[in-house]
Write a structure and sequence with these properties.
The complex is a heterodimer of chains A (about 100) and B (about 270). Helices cover about 35% and strands about 25% of the residues of chain A. By secondary structure, chain A is α+β, with helices and mostly antiparallel strands. Helices cover about 40% and strands about 25% of the residues of chain B. An 8-stranded mixed β-sheet of chain B has the order 7-8-9-10-6-2-1-11, with helices on both faces. A 3-stranded mixed β-sheet of chain B has the order 4-3-5. Classes of the chains: A alpha+beta (about 100), B alpha/beta (about 270). Chains A and B meet through strand 3 of A and strand 9 and helix 11 of B.
Chain lengths: ~100, ~270
């Protein structure tokens, strides 16, 4: 089940499935949400990842930069789920 | 090093999630010893991962009609169906204490060695499957696990199947084979129980719990003494229980999606 007006990307990282739901406004990410069976330590940092992506350019470089910055600022560790995995899932939604 | 061992046996599913969260916070604050916690669910329950939608994972009408609880845990990972024929465990250590490795795979390897020791004690093989955070015996899954780190504690939670309602799991979960081996079409084909390994010879649950406890102790290199929950742990667990029972917590992901879906579209 996906959101109306949102594009969905799915990427199976080594740490679990990441589903991204992306709403675009032109070439920018207007809104974004995630679900899946991945692990983040802390799990609540998923909110900061989503927040950092709102307004970001929907390009691989911008998305990776935003996610990587939150990993660093929040001290996220995630078994088998790197910023690149979030980026793959998000860009799959953007390009769908 | 001395650890604490807590076995509540059958408890409510929501309360179990509140309790391991409470114990973790107390372990993380060094208010209590590192703890091995065992429980069983009083009634069947689905434990849902932190980032999962109820509606995508669970046949909720079937659960409601059959008194199956849907419990959202504070840990990530996938969902699992649990009934009273599983020993559920949470191995909870202080994050900086050095008893459980700081790297995630290292933590699984150390703690889940307890399951492998247990299977060996019964004369069976056991193998850690790192891709699925699971323990397999005879090529089938006998223990599913999740890990969490918060409030200064590290938790490795999991199940040990003594017996199991395979067909019920197929009815409860929308993707029952998702975390089983590739090509498996139903829960029964991808999972195995101690009862099946013993070829129906039967077991005494208290004896199995003793072997499992010893398995963890040997894997961790510790001795765990039977202890009790502190008043503070119980009090916090009771407060957290309200959260875990609340519709807002259980459906937090689904509600967010619903709000997005209902948001007026601006063109």
């Amino acid at each position: 089940m996906s959101y109306e007006g949102y594009k969905e990307g799915r990427h199976k990282s080594k740490g679990g499935l990441i589903r991204s739901f992306v709403k675009l406004e032109g070439n920018q990410i207007e809104d974004i949400a995630f679900s899946g069976d991945f692990f983040l330590f802390p799990e609540t940092a998923i909110e900061q990842i989503a927040q950092s992506l709102k307004g970001a350019n929907a390009t691989s470089d911008s998305v990776l930069f935003a996610v990587r910055s939150v990993y660093e600022s929040e001290g996220i560790t995630a078994p088998g789920t790197a910023p690149e995995d979030f980026t793959t899932s998000i860009m799959q939604a953007v390009e769908s | 090093m001395t650890w604490r061992f807590i076995d509540t046996d059958k408890i409510d599913g929501y309360y179990s999630a509140a309790l391991f969260e409470s114990i973790a916070k107390h372990v993380g604050n060094s208010e209590v010893d590192d703890t091995i916690f065992f429980w069983r669910t009083k009634t069947p329950a689905v434990y849902l991962g932190y980032h999962q939608y109820v509606e995508d994972e669970v046949h909720k009408e079937y659960c409601a009609a059959n008194s199956i609880q849907v419990v959202r845990r504070v840990l990530g990972g996938g969902c699992g169906y649990c009934d009273e024929d599983q020993i559920l465990f949470s191995v909870i250590a202080s994050e900086g204490g050095g008893m459980v490795p700081t790297d995630i795979q290292g933590a699984y390897s150390r703690v889940l060695g307890g399951l492998i020791n247990t299977l060996r004690a019964f004369g069976f093989d056991g193998k850690l499957e790192p891709k699925r955070n699971a323990v397999y015996s005879m090529g089938r899954k006998i223990s599913g696990n999740a890990q969490g780190r918060f409030a200064g504690a590290v938790l490795v939670n999991g199940s040990f199947l003594l017996d199991f309602g395979f067909d019920e799991m197929d009815r409860v979960l929308k993707n029952p084979t998702m975390n089983l081996a590739e090509g498996v079409e139903c829960a029964r084909d991808g999972m195995i129980t101690l009862s099946e390994l013993l070829d129906g010879a039967g077991y005494d649950i208290d004896y199995v719990k003793g072997v499992l406890k010893r398995g963890f102790e040997d894997a961790l290199g510790v001795e765990a003494r039977r202890g009790v929950l502190t008043d503070s742990e119980i009090e916090l667990a009771q407060r957290l229980n309200e959260k875990h029972r609340s519709r807002d917590w259980i459906y937090r992901m689904d509600d967010k999606r619903r709000r997005r879906r209902n948001k007026p579209q601006v063109h």
